[in-house]
Design goal:
Strand order of the largest sheet: 3-2-1-4-5-6
Largest sheet: 6 strands, parallel
Helix content: 40-55%
Shape: globular
Number of helices: 18
Order of helices and strands: EHEHEHHEHEHEHHHEHEHEHEHEHHEHHH
Strand content: 5-15%
Distance between the termini: 10 Å
Structural class: alpha/beta
Length: 373
């Protein structure tokens, strides 16, 4: 099979890597290429474009990049029409990938177009449902509630499990980790995997680390493995010069070895939930971006664990509420109050049960290959 795969950030690249490995297990001679990162390439994909080209976040940040993004869309469309893959798998990054899917259909692409991690039409911009019905053969969402929503809107959706359920089964604490942080009451600090995230959250987390250190905890910053070299160097130096520890291996291992977690809202919150760790979720952004999003988004919670439980098991500290003192207070409320801890831990167990049990990436690969026969 000839398969095009496209992602635009670290989390999407992780899912691309999981999918590519499973496709090659079933169909070893498949040619897989596209817009990928390290995970996609190391799993057997050929990156024609780097996923770094879509590392954008925030409404105001996207506007100046529109001419470049349109040029990228046109270049990818031309290459796909020339190479004629059997399937185009578009992972997350809905603003770009919905536009690319429409361009492919208008250009006469006859292969399958699949949305892996479709847009969150259940939360905002529900009008994009018509794009999913018109341009995509089927969607592969991450969560059961997304799957049910898409089906209710007439979108062809397939779901059995979340990929992290299987992917996190083998996470364990290494001897290196135990030796380095032996005896410390570790709090994992997760500043994100994008420059935007780090820009708007690092100072908050450094302030949090200062308070935690004074209280006898060991704050450890995660340096995400998917960061570009310059950004990881910059983050490492900033953390070190502030007198704090960092961990550059698996962020999942760091969370598993911690008492609790504080970090930027995103996939990391789902990972923390599956690892059974409490997390103080923060999200900071420009005031104008926040004002616009408040008018557009129609959900009570931004963190997936809270959506799965329909309650605030993870505190959500947004913008002005994302203060070091507030973060530490939330962490200590969980760690020091046994009643609160038990209640939250029980809610997290229920949330984990809603994530499915099978190997989701294997299911994705089977869907893609079988529907192209």
């Amino acid at each position: 099979m000839n398969i095009f795969v496209s992602c635009g950030e670290v989390s999407g690249d992780i899912y691309a890597g999981l999918l590519i490995r499973e496709i090659l297990k079933i169909s070893p001679d498949s040619k897989i290429w596209g817009m990928l990162g390290h995970e996609g390439e190391s799993s057997g994909g050929r990156p024609v474009w780097s996923y770094e080209e879509l590392k954008l976040m925030g409404i105001l940040e996207i506007i100046p990049a529109i001419p470049r993004i349109l040029k990228l869309k046109n270049n990818i469309t031309r290459e796909i029409m020339k190479s004629k893959p059997d399937a185009a798998i578009l992972i997350d990054c809905p603003d770009f990938h919905l536009m690319l899917a429409k361009s492919l259909r208008k250009s006469g692409f006859n292969g399958k177009i699949i949305s892996l991690i479709p847009p969150t039409v259940w939360a905002w911009r529900s009008g994009r449902v018509k794009n999913l019905r018109r341009d995509f053969d089927f969607c592969l969402p991450l969560f059961s509630f997304e799957h049910e929503f898409l089906l209710s809107k007439g979108v062809n959706s397939l779901w059995k499990s979340h990929p992290l359920v299987h992917d996190l089964e083998g996470v364990k604490i290494s001897d290196e980790f135990k030796k380095r942080f032996e005896g410390g009451k570790i709090i994992a600090l997760m500043p994100g995997s994008r420059r935007y995230d780090i820009k708007f959250h690092l100072e908050i987390l450094l302030g949090t680390a200062e308070i935690l250190k004074l209280k006898g905890y060991l704050p450890v910053f995660s340096i995400a493995q998917g960061l570009s070299y310059d950004l990881s160097d910059e983050l490492r130096e900033r953390v070190k010069s502030s007198g704090f520890e960092s961990w550059e291996s698996s962020g999942r291992e760091l969370m598993l070895g911690s008492c609790a977690v504080a970090g930027v809202s995103g996939t990391v919150a789902v990972e923390a939930m599956l690892l059974g760790r409490f997390m103080a979720v923060i999200y900071n952004m420009r005031r104008l971006n926040y004002a616009i999003l408040k008018r557009l988004v129609h959900v009570r919670n931004i963190s997936i664990p809270n959506m799965l439980t329909d309650k605030r098991v993870y505190p959500e500290l947004l913008c002005d509420d994302a203060k070091p003192e507030r973060i530490v207070n939330e962490l200590e409320r969980y760690m020091n109050d046994e009643k609160v801890k038990t209640e939250i831990d029980n809610a997290l167990k229920i949330a984990r049960l809603s994530m499915g049990t099978c190997n989701a990436a294997e299911f994705w690969a089977e869907c893609i290959i079988n529907k192209n026969k």
